[in-house]
């Protein structure tokens, strides 16, 4: 996963019972539509931008930006598939949910440790 996920953990602290999508968005520093794209990609591995745009009912440019962010954050992979008639197309696959959950736990553990350090160092 990315070393700089741009956490928005303060948003989580304001909610007493956040949904998984909210946790994922805040911890990985991604937008709600990017989390939605990740979850759709879990259900449709190996999808192209056009295929995901159809599934999500979003325009291709929005899906492309979401996928770029997910790849940057380490939540998706991009592979190039050669076409029979020449050329290629990119296919995207989400990292497995257990890996994403582990990364969420690690990010929260790191954040918690840093908060404990701040508390301990306060004089």
UniProtKB/TrEMBL annotation:
Position of the signal peptide: none
InterPro entries in alphabetical order: Tscrpt_reg_TrmB_N (IPR002831), WH-like_DNA-bd_sf (IPR036388), WH_DNA-bd_sf (IPR036390)
Domain Transcription regulator TrmB N-terminal intervals: 25-96
UniProt-listed Pfam families: TrmB (PF01978)
This protein's name: Helix-turn-helix domain-containing protein
Organism encoding this protein: Natronosalvus rutilus
